[in-house]
## 1
Amino acid sequence: MRYCQFIETLKRGYATGCAAIYTADGRVLPTHSPMLCGQPAMQAFWQSAIDVGLRDATLKTLEPEDQGDVVIETGAYMLDIVSPGGTVTKIV
């Protein structure tokens, strides 16, 4: 359910909604960048991604780790970036 919520929110270009899906102390590990922690940092991250054309993503869980009331998920992604001219670039 959360995956679908996230993707639909991303497609609408709503960075605040993308960040709200994470817990208050959630983390994002962007490629070639420092780890981000907390919803304000994640909102800024998703807004910058949306601003450069991120319009869709495919997420795949590779390694879920259940620690009681905390779940850590490691995964892979494919992103669709749309240029101002409408060309879609897939980033893996």
## 2
Amino acid sequence: MVSDTFIYSGKNVFELNGIPDFTLPAVKSKVKIPEPSRTTDPKIILSIFSQLDIAPWGDDNLSPTQARAKLLKVALAARAMKLRIRTHFGKGLLLYKEVLTTSEKIQKVPVLAHAEFEEFAKRSNLSITQARFCSDWEWYSNIFCEIILSEDAKKITRINRLPAEFCRWQKLNPINLKSEFVYFTADWTRINTPDDVQKIRALDWDNPIEDLRNYIKRGGKLRKFILPIKMEEMDAIYYDTPYWTSILDTYVPIALTIPKVKQALLKNQMVLKFHIKIPFNYWLTKYPNWNNPTDFPDEKKSKIINDTLDEMSKFLSDVENTGKSFISHYGTDPLTGKISDEWKIEPIDNNRMIKDGSYVVDAKAAKEEIISAIGVDNTLLGGLGGSETGSGSNKREAFNILQAELSMDRMITTKWFDYVKDYNNWDADLKIGYRNIDTSETLNENPTGSKETL
């Protein structure tokens, strides 16, 4: 028996003797990350670098910008970075002193009144400046802290943060093996002369305050300097490398490819509701001259078929038709007694390629590697699912662990305070720290759910 096959998918689709073959086009697995546009001839930039002896950050001097652009394309990675920055900053800075209790334990006592520091903090817009230091450290593992001296050079009156992405070190002086200047510009692709780059005197990497005092003793007139805050891990001479950069050319492209594949599936795979099978004999029974091209030319047949499809689509899809019965006539084969020439309406399992979890495992694995490299437990993000994702105790412990792991990073991002305290002759036992959120107590012990700690 020959059957005509009709497929309803929101539009009328007619195919004789079978279902059309819809083939998914090939999807490229390599995601191209656009590089920052360049407006200056690279030869001019190289010439300026040579004149100023600038140490480029990466082969093309755009490594931090490119790394940030790549990572921000992964939504969960961006969220993880934001979480690290917020946890690093906590509830902000607080002055304190350490005292020894009668039980010989060290207790941190907040210093709530310090007029000189408060004036310094006000001039420096310290809360925002410190949050920016945290951001630069988490993103780039480099901080460029600018200090401003009073006219008489007796005090450091304020600090500024120069965005790490826009700063470059001068190459090492071959005599003392020190970088003596930092160069700053908001766009390293738009420099045409050395004057487009700001040049700022840098203090000694290891002994900045001694270097500053010696400079003032020699009658130096500058009052603005870069206070180096860096680790110089492993072979990093100029710029430390964040550990998360290891995923930029591995798991980030995978995480970016999966959504593109899904989009291609959604775009190119038809969404079908029902497969309607109408016996060919139906038309002959209803229209005896169906095969007569004079009475029923192809255009007329198509219109009749499409009108029938429209009626069926309304019957099957309208809310008012829910629960209705469909009645059709059928015939039996006189030889076998089996049913023949019957209508069939078969529901179609839509989007099997989308619903069966294809690529989900790959996407999840890539995201887990990414946030692991950033250093955030996935229970704090809730983006990967799993039976333990929503557990409050898991989240609390993961947050406490993250806070504890930040101790060395926090020491680095507040190192400027030790230098300023030394130069300004503040109390030697004065310290600064971040205020934490203590989530270790239960709600009946701590009704607000939080307690400040240092």
